[in-house]
Design goal:
With about 425 residues, the protein is mainly beta. It is about 5% helix and about 45% strand. It has helices at about 1-15, 365-370, 375-380, and strands at about 25-40, 50-60, 65-75, 85, 105, 115-120, 125-130, 165, 200-210, 210-220, 230-240, 240-250, 255-265, 270-280, 290-300, 305-315, 325-335, 340-350, 385-395, 400-415, 420-430. It starts with a helix and ends with a strand.
């Protein structure tokens, strides 16, 4: 039991700093089936969709080489009115966390890749040369989701705050989505620079024991005439803590900075801190740059099977007209025995608002600050809020097979005070070998 609990602590605390999507040689298959109703403003609405997704992952280590990949397929009803099996970039997380505002408004990886392929060469100990569509070279902690969004343990990230996707950054901020305030934490130097359509990178990194890691990547989409690259590093001078740093978009006028720290004061306690800044190059087209910081921790009660992982985050906009956004949440897990475990994620988030929504001044002045609606309309607007809860029950029927039952619910109040209830439920069957 003690090994199980300590393993849970390390899994929760280090998920954001794994070396690859799959950490070791093996096969993992995740089959999901579920149903739900997204973006419902009518409490009498029933099931709006149902579907099935199978995600197959595999990693092979042969000598100095590692190869891994994933393919995602399934069907949804409705899916553009069709009932068909397709390779899909949707995840079980998609429907509750994608509001119906085209597909420009997103929450991180609610839409994922249909597949990924990574190749790594390890010519000498500690040195990696990689090429892939999802290298996942993460160096430090960031706001959690506890799993990849195709996995059974995934919960909403940053309390359900949202942001407008890269092609729409010029209008990012309060009023651009229902509850604005999501922050991009570039704690990996192998991801694509936001704004490029293709993920993936070429990279090199060197790791010396547990003391430090340093690396550089060239993201897919980099133009030779407008060259850019990413860097990352992690240093652990003592077993009690480590610090990490990453910068995406060196040589561009729209860079993204990340810094993180992890503290290990006790065997059963991990404390994380992280900070992010975007638009460091001063791109004039990105009027509403977003910065943020957060704190999180993982604590297991001594002599208990209870693990608590609280989390807090704050969002700051470069535009002084915008207020801060914040969220607070926690994951709570209880391991009953080797076969059964219970858990839930609960969070609350409050979005950012434009101060001029509440300023009864000349309309020309309001328009100059991005508010085109009349004062009588915007006076009652606020940042909006989100309450989210996701309980789950996991049953391990063998060393290789497990089932997870879950329910996912969000009560979303938009900045215009429109209330919606988004929910989903389903089952995961996970096979690992």
């Amino acid at each position: 039991m003690k090994k199980i609990i300590l393993g849970a602590v390390m899994a929760l605390s280090m998920f954001a700093a794994t070396a690859q999507v799959m950490g070791s040689n093996g096969v993992k298959n995740t089959l999901w089936s579920g149903f739900g109703c997204p973006d419902s403003t009518d409490n009498n609405r029933g099931v709006d969709w149902y579907g099935l997704i199978d995600t197959l992952q595999a990693r092979v280590d042969i000598g100095q080489f590692s190869m891994e990949g994933m393919i995602n397929w399934g069907f949804f009803v409705p899916d553009n009115g069709a009932k068909r099996f397709v390779y899909t970039n949707k995840t079980p997380f998609y429907f509750v966390n994608q509001i119906s505002q085209a597909e420009s408004t997103i929450i991180d990886d609610a839409i994922t890749d249909k597949y990924y392929v990574n190749f790594l060469w390890h010519p000498v100990k500690g040195l990696d040369l990689g090429a892939g569509t999802r290298l996942e070279w993460k160096v430090g902690p960031a706001p959690s989701c506890s799993d990849y969004y195709w996995g059974p343990n995934a919960h909403v990230k940053q309390g359900g705050l949202k942001y407008v996707s890269p092609g729409y950054l010029s209008v990012n901020g309060p009023g651009s989505t229902d509850v604005a305030g999501f922050v991009y934490y570039p704690n990996t130097y192998s991801s694509t620079i936001r704004g490029y359509s293709n993920p993936g990178a070429l990279g090199i990194r060197y790791t010396f024991k547990d003391l430090f890691e340093i690396g550089m990547t060239i993201p897919s989409g980099t133009n030779i005439d407008d060259f850019s690259f990413n860097i990352g590093a992690k240093i652990q001078p003592l077993s009690l803590f480590n610090v990490s740093f990453a910068y995406e978009g060196i040589c561009k006028n729209e860079g993204y900075l990340y810094a993180g720290v992890q503290l290990f004061p006790m065997k059963n306690l991990v404390i994380n801190g992280y900070f992010a800044m975007d638009n460091l190059g001063g791109n004039e087209n990105v009027k509403n740059g977003v910065n943020g910081f957060g704190l999180s921790g993982v604590y297991t009660l001594k002599g208990s099977a209870l693990t608590i992982a609280p989390e807090f985050g704050m969002t700051f906009y470069e535009n002084d007209d915008f207020t801060n956004a914040f969220y607070i949440g926690s994951e709570i897990d209880y391991t009953l025995n080797k076969q059964f475990s219970f858990g839930t994620w609960v969070s609350f988030a409050w979005g950012a608002e434009n101060k001029y929504w509440h300023q009864n001044v000349a309309q020309t002045t309001r328009a100059a600050h991005g508010v085109t609606d009349l004062y009588s309309t915007t006076n009652n607007w606020n940042g909006g809020n989100v309450f989210a809860i996701r309980p789950k029950i996991t049953m391990a029927i063998s060393q290789n097979h497990s089932f997870t039952l879950y329910a996912d619910y969000q009560a979303r109040t938009s900045y215009k005070n429109t209330v919606s209830s988004d929910w989903a439920a389903g089952i995961f069957w996970t096979y690992t070998k």
